[in-house]
Automatic annotation (TrEMBL):
This is 6-carboxyhexanoate--CoA ligase. Pathway: Metabolic intermediate metabolism; pimeloyl-CoA biosynthesis; pimeloyl-CoA from pimelate: step 1/1. One of its GO terms (molecular function) is 6-carboxyhexanoate-CoA ligase activity. The lineage of its organism: Bacteria, Bacillati, Bacillota, Negativicutes, Veillonellales. Its EC number is 6.2.1.14. Homodimer.
Amino acid sequence: MMGLYSIRMRGAEGGPHEEGGRHISGAERIVEEHDLESVAASLIHRALQHSKGKSDFINIRIDAVHDEDIAYVDCIAIDEHQTESVKESHELAKELLQSVVTNKAVEQAFTELGQLPGNMRGAILLDANTGVRLDQDNMRGVRVSHMDACGTEIRPMNVHMREALVLATKVQSCPGIVGELCWSDDPDYTVGYVACNGVYHRIPNMKDMGNPIGGRVFFVDINRPIHEIVDYLENITVLVRW
Ligand code: AMP
């Protein structure tokens, strides 16, 4: 097998993130060497053409990855739901999550996402039983990284869905995590999802059109040190098999 590289992009407006710039776009891929240049070009395009604005700072980082450090995971199943309103979608999401999370924790997740003052960079970790927040409780959250898919795609899908499915599959493969709730921070994209029991439940109308705030919650159900969960999500390379 040819050598693989992790390529990660983050773009911000008003300067670098670490100097207070506003996050515009971030994305990453794991690709073979001969695809690096074209993938870099498409990531730059995204940083410049995002509906949230135009990045004036773009960082691209490339690291070789060694095959022995890669975990291969099968893509989770997809279930598409139809709904008519945000209210109906949230009720459906709560119902689906209640197979793995207490009512209290589900309600807490919606409260946390509903009162975010802006977009977090990562996800909130919640105890699936008590609803207590387990991460550092700031606007950074836990940022899942080092993942992509390999092989031929199972079906046509837009870039949002592809990335969400890869992320949700990595998160579902993490021992200790039983569920996920998400909607996008892209003002034009109102589809969200719930992932649990090995299924990605794609749900339309998870927020109102034009709303620029999104978020993610991961529900943790076993007594496992949080730093181990965070380390898996942030640092272990996962390739999803379609
Ligand atoms: P997106 O679906 O990319 O619009 O992201 C929606 C929300 O999920 C963002 O506002 C972040 O709070 C969170 N998020 C985005 N990317 C990640 C990631 N790689 N890991 C964890 N949370 C993320």
